[in-house]
Amino acid sequence: MLYAVICYNSESVVGAWSKEKDDAVMAHHQGVLAKFAAKGKLGPVARLMPTTTATTVRTGREMMVLDGPFAETKEQMLGFYLFDCDTLDEVIAAARELVHEPGCMEIRPVQFFEPGVLKTAAAK
């Protein structure tokens, strides 16, 4: 089953990290990811640019394109990992190794969309 592990944290906290702290966190992540990659269980990984670089498209009475995310949140989505794990417990173990205070990792099973057909990764 494919799982998306979505990284959330406060951009102001992460943005205030020294280069050394950021490098150490990324090195830690690389170590965790290398274990899963060696088992063939790691898919795409992406670190997102700050929300100040975001553009949002909203629907309503009229479609709007806005600068920024304008989300009412204390934490922002910073990136994601895609894991191909046999069980939820296996991906939870990965998320536990990746999470850094005060952030969190959200885990969601991934569905593939093909016109007219929704499939989970396990059904492919």
TrEMBL record:
InterPro entries reported for this sequence: Dimeric_a/b-barrel, YCII
UniProt name for this protein: YciI family protein
SUPFAM superfamilies per the UniProt record, alphabetical: Dimeric alpha+beta barrel (SSF54909)
A Pfam family recorded for this sequence: YCII
Family statement: Belongs to the YciI family.
Domain YCII-related: 1-111
Superkingdom, taxonomy of origin: Bacteria
